[in-house]
Design brief:
The chain is mainly α. It contains 14 helices and no strands.
Length: about 300
């Protein structure tokens, strides 16, 4: 089992439920029941896309470091010469309270930030925000992990151990087991924490009319996540800037790919052809599930 997984599951679930009650609203969730089946069938290909990206990324993360050393494109010195001791200066203002805040934000806040929009956008009548979020997430992971394979870059805590402390691991030693389980110390450029956090904040801005309270909350959490990556000595400022640029690209690309005007063009035609077999599979599976529950008088 992944270290801290039970604790993370409980905390993040509680945060998502609180967000659903206070930001989404139970009335909107209740009204979603009538269109749940149609929505599931429509979004199923997008869910498969994201799951496929996660599967590929899992493989790349395991073999990525070996491929990186094979390519041997090292950029750590270039990053250090570009920004120097910026992270060390930032850490010089560290306080115990700030370390606790940024440590928990880096893990709990980040996961909540990614999960809540999926739930919130799922129950909207307009399905475009959900599709945009899934595509933007997928693009972030594809490009980000691709960069991890291409570039060898050590974080500031590895380059300046005398000046930069590993505050996350000092304050919360168990987190070291979690981060090493899913990442390598040469995978820092760009910062995926930054790119995905900024992506969520940008999507929140686009859906501010539907969820006005989500925009300030997501901006606060996203900003805290971005700062935490440097405050904790994990990423360089350069990684953060690159991650921000990646987020902008992914959101713009997702908006273009989900633009209604593209539905009648080549993109829409290609998408319809690709999803036909997936739609048949999803519809058959859902029909069997409903038949199973009817035969046993189970609620669905």
């Amino acid at each position: 089992m992944i270290p801290l997984l039970p604790e993370i599951s409980v905390v993040v679930t509680a945060l998502v439920v609180a967000g659903v009650v206070t930001i989404v609203g139970l009335d909107r969730v209740w009204a979603f029941r009538d269109r749940a089946r149609d929505r599931f069938l429509y979004i199923f290909p997008y869910v498969l896309l994201l799951l496929g990206v996660f599967a590929v990324n899992s493989v790349l993360r395991s073999v990525g470091p070996a491929l990186s050393w094979l390519l041997n494109w090292q950029i750590t010195n270039e990053i250090f010469s570009l920004e120097g001791e910026f992270v060390a200066v930032l850490q010089s203002y560290a306080t115990p309270a700030a370390t606790v805040y940024f440590s928990y934000t880096y893990i709990y806040g980040y996961i909540f930030l990614l999960l809540f929009p999926v739930v919130a956008y799922l129950v909207l009548e307009d399905d475009r925000p959900f599709r945009m979020a899934i595509i933007a997430y997928a693009l972030n992971y594809i490009i980000g992990v691709g960069c991890y394979v291409l570039f060898i870059a050590y974080g500031p805590r590895n380059v300046m151990p005398d000046l930069v402390d590993q505050l996350l691991y000092v304050h919360w030693p168990e987190s070291n087991l979690l981060t090493t389980e899913i990442n390598s110390n040469v995978n820092v450029f760009p910062s995926l924490h930054t790119s995905l956090a900024v992506t969520v904040a940008m999507l929140a801005y686009r859906t501010r009319d539907e969820y006005p309270a989500w925009l300030p909350l997501s901006s606060l959490v996203a900003g805290s996540v971005v700062i935490s990556t440097m405050y904790l000595g994990i990423h360089w400022l350069t990684d953060v800037i690159a991650g921000t640029g990646l987020a902008v690209f992914c959101v713009v690309a997702a908006a273009w790919l989900t633009d209604p005007t593209n539905l009648d063009g080549r993109i829409g035609s290609l998408g319809r052809r690709l999803r036909r077999p997936i739609d048949r599979f999803a519809r058959a599976g859902l029909d069997r599930l409903q038949q199973f529950t009817r035969d046993r008088d189970l609620p669905i």
